[in-house]
Amino acid sequence: MNLSPLQKARYEYSPKLPGMLRNGIADICVKEGAETQSVADQEKIKALFPNTYGKKEITFEKGQNTSEAKKQVVGVILSGGQAPGGHNVVCGLYDALKATNKDNVLIGFKGGPSGLIEDNFIVLEDEYVDQFRNTGGFDIIGSGRTKLETQEQFAIAAEVCKKHGVTAIVIIGGDDSNTNAGILAEYMAANNTGVQVIGCPKTIDGDLKNEDIEISFGFDTACKTYSEMIGNIERDANSSKKYWHFIKVMGRAASHVALECGLQTQPNITLISEEVAAKKQSLSEITNYIADIVEVRGNKGLNYGVAIIPEGVVEFVPEFSALIQEINEMLAGAKADAFNELPSWAAKVEFIEKGLTKEALEVFNILPEAIQQQLFLDRDPHGNVQVSLIESEKLFSAMVATELKARKAAGSYKGKFTAMHHFMGYEGRCAFPSNFDADYCYSLGYNAFMLIQYGYTGYLSKVSNLSAPAVEWVAGGMPITKMMNIERRHGEDKPVIKKALVELDGAPFKYFEAHRAEWAENTCFRYPGAIQYYGPSEVCDQTTITLALEQGAFKAE
Over the stretch 284-327, which tens digit does the pLDDT of each residue have? Predict the structure, then answer.
């Protein structure tokens, strides 16, 4: 294999563990906390999870290991989109498993949850695992988005586990994947299969978090990767002084990535979807907000700047959301076929005009034609608009250009406006994990096996106190049901892990809010640079500004 020097060096990196996990397997004991309850809908969740609801939170401490000594055959699954550090979760799990008993076995189910259903697996061994230590990606066993949610699937999973003598399954994924892990754990317990199920919190979007899960893995690396590129663009803008860069970043359901990148790079504009929703801002209001900043800077001769746009912001605009709902209704069932058979865009517009209410049509008509057409691209499997395909960065730059043209005609705007567009998404999903993510993920995997060894099921691997040095991190577990509530999904009530949105009264947003006016009018760009792996701890092991602000550990420069 032709390796880069960085690959070779990263293979040799030894991830840091929380202090209590450094003592050796024989010297780790359990401290149990209080019983838990779900975040909402307690009676409904309790009824759905009679065998796994209300369990106690636990932490690991230094002390005599009292777990039952037995051979473990553990299955591991990577579920959903990639996130930096996933390989280290597997490596940490593998190392703890082998340190406990060299005869323990780790089976990697390939291609995500479907690998368990299809009995498609690989037995992980030293030589193979060592190729993936501290590297990005999920290619060690692959990933997938199959959901484990039907009784038939659960029965097949139980049979596959029985066939291989599997004693536990670790599912590494986001909120939906860990919801499925909780449901699978309940099935395995209810049917006395003897199979434990443990989850690990993954998503670069950062929306799998709460008072127990301080950060999902991959968020740190992805945001640092995007922030490096945004900083590079800011430096270019400040050098050429002639372009406005509209940069869309990942985060459809929440704006954690946009906010963190905004804090890291201090651009002129950062939209926060949750604020748009809270203030019920219209497309015109957002357009005018951006145009006002462009005008102020342009009239001072500063015809350049940077705007960060969250991927899903348009869904948070009430009028746009209503338009999407009407389009979904208008093209339900056979109507979609009739629409798709129309010979031209003009004919389709006529069809649209007849099918929308006056209010929705007004919103549709202010959109640039390219965005109008994106609303009618291929539907998702449920027949709905694929909002992620809408180029919101181009939507707002086009609307701002139209508004500035009117202002120039009126004599208020003296500058020049030329827009450039960027989307930063896949670049961050498989990056070399930062030291923080390498350490955190290894700890999550190592910790997951300790939960298995002590007999827990339906738990999420938990590592906290993450703004402190790794030696001060606290390892333990929390019941998955603690994070659940009931939501309406496709016409049915479903138990799901509640997504964490940006809190507008939280410390990260408040810090951003206090500084954004200065960042808007002036050029206060911050250049984070590339992720550093070797050097002083304050450079190499820093966590996100978001987490530092949340835990009172942020020090302004």
Answer: 999 999 999 999 999 999 999 999 999 999 989 999 999 988 99
Show the CA angle centred on residue 556, arms to residues 552 and 557, nearest 5°.
150
Q: pTM for the full model?
A: 0.95
Residues in the chain: 557
For each of the domains in the chain, give its residue range(s) and CATH number, in order of start: 18-130+148-218+433-489 (3.40.50.450), 219-429+506-550 (3.40.50.460)
How many Å apart are CA 446 and CA 23, to the nearest integer? Answer: 13
Q: Token pair of 315, please?
A: 């869904």
CA distance 50 to 303: 62
Alpha-carbon span 144 to 108, nearest angstrom = 13
Among 475, 520, 80, residue whose Cα is nearest residue 266:
520
Q: Are 100 and 25 in contact (CB under 8 A)?
A: yes
Q: Are 304 and 242 in contact (CB under 8 A)?
A: yes
Buried b (16+ CB within 10 A) or exposed e, 477-513: bbbbbbbbbbeeeeeeeebbbbbbbbeeeeebbebbe
pLDDT exceeds cutoff 80 at 383: no
541 classed as catalytic: no
- Please give the pLDDT value at position 380: 66
Q: Distance between CA 167 and CA 148 in Å, rounded?
A: 18
pLDDT in tens, 39-95: 999 999 999 999 999 999 999 999 999 998 899 999 999 999 999 999 999 999 999
Element of type H or E holding 175:
helix 175-190
What confidence tens digit (pLDDT) does each residue in 419-438 have? Answer: 999 999 999 999 999 999 99
The residue from 205, 220, 437, 439 that is catalytic is 205
Check: CB of residue 448 under 8 Å from CB of residue 76. Answer: no
